[in-house]
Amino acid sequence: MTPFIxxxxxxxxxxxxxxxxxxxxxxxxTYAQGGGWVLITFGWGFAVFMAVIVAGPVSGAHIxxxxxxxxxxxxxxxxxxxxxxxxxxxxxxxxxxxxxWINFYSHYKATPGESEKLGTFxxxxxxxxxxxxFINELIGTxxxxxxxxxxxxxxxxxxxxxxxxxxxxxxGALPVAFLVVAIGMSLGGTTGYAINPARDLGPRIIHALVPxxxxxxxxxxxxxxxxIGPVAGAAxxxxxYLLLI
Length: 245
Known about the structure:
By secondary structure, this protein is an all-alpha fold. The protein has a single domain (about 5-245), classed as Glycerol uptake facilitator protein (Up-down Bundle). It contains ten helices and two strands, in the order αααααααββααα. The radius of gyration is 17 Å and the shape is globular. Residues about 155-165 have low confidence and may be disordered.
């Protein structure tokens, strides 16, 4: 397995289980309907755990363009590998969201609400205030990337392209899962804590493409915030890390 394939598979698992728990807790007539925020935050944390288990040994388990960019800005990852990693993450995210749509197809048909359907693919603000929503995503991703930078080990060896700087896998699967749960429980209620451009934009594209009754629009006016906000948060984390060391 190459790092490119590992990032596809890791991000696929992340979105399949992460968007899956959102669908499970939201859509009509699932046994988990109404499971609430605690179920969703733990579900996303476990999704990260499983994704890191799959991708960590080969790619370092970035599974997030903001993590990839943050590590590169901090000098812990080669800029030459950034485009390949980000492409893999978007492919994996879109495949994961498409699989969620297949898995819950009957429940999407049974759910009339447009916002409920959209929320199983991508994020949106609890209170629409784009400047504040941008800051929310920046802060959440800052915490994610800053902690990852402090726990990152120097390198992981692969047979494919030599030594790679590691990502979420450098913390270990369980601690990074706890980190994501902590961000969701403490900070995530404002925007749904995308903290990952691929996690939001990839599934949003799938939402726009797949057929679904009473689907509504994909809220493209908001879509830039969970992309640019996390990248800005990663840049702030990398800058502060470099300043402190």
